[in-house]
Fold this sequence. Notes:
- This protein is of the alpha/beta class.
- It has helices spanning 6-15, 33-42, 55-67, 85-88, 118-131, 149-161; strands at residues 23-26, 47-52, 75-79, 97-103, 137-142, 168-173, 184-190.
- Helix content is 33%, strand content 21%.
- Strands 3-2-1-4-5-7-6 form a 7-stranded mixed beta sheet, with helices on both faces.
- It starts with 5 loop residues before the first helix and ends in a 5-residue tail after the last strand.
- S-adenosylmethionine binds next to helix 2 and strand 2.
Amino acid sequence: MRFRKAVQWSHSIIREVLGPGDVAVDATAGNGHDTLFLCRLTGPDGHVHGIDIQEQAIEATRRRLTDNGVTPWSFSLTCGSHSNLSDLIPGSHRPKVRAIMFNFGYLPGGDHDLTTREETSVAAVSQAMDLLAPGGRMTLTFYTGHPGGPEEAAAVRRLLEQSDPSIWVVLEYRFINLPNNPPYVVALERSAGCD
Ligand SMILES: C[S@@+](CC[C@H](N)C(=O)[O-])C[C@H]1O[C@@H](n2cnc3c(N)ncnc32)[C@H](O)[C@@H]1O
């Protein structure tokens, strides 16, 4: 694969740890591209939770999953804020959450003023870190070209800089030769406890 887009990095990072029967979370479902990607990996015996604050995004995601033949009981879509993430994942699924994706910013084709925000993003990533199973991975894709984007990215970074290195590996993937604030990915891996 040629890594032309940040989303390709995030998918390749997740693909290595997520498989049939696992549980995954798309914390910013948007138009459902990442939710579909996750559903294809977890399969009919797994489960993907898609969350978005906009009903329009939830409907677009539902349409994409249905149009692509994803088994209806293998996903749940919630219209709400990912800052309530810990309340949205049922107890039986918690130990199996092997992947969580955040794709910050605004809904492509939607209202550009409805973006993810610093406070809710920090709260959500913090809860996601509690949720992720040992050996699991999380990707955070940041867009810093819109108002509030740099502040949001900096706030989440401050949170991650405080994470315990004996538990978390945190990496940043950036294009360094592209103009105009290209998106970048931060990946987290939770130690499986035996390395
Ligand atoms: C860049 S888009 C996500 C794109 C998506 N991953 C895809 O594959 O199409 C960002 C999404 O975050 C959503 N969002 C903004 N604030 C949110 C919040 N507090 N909780 C959940 N979703 C939120 C927006 O509505 C928007 O759809």
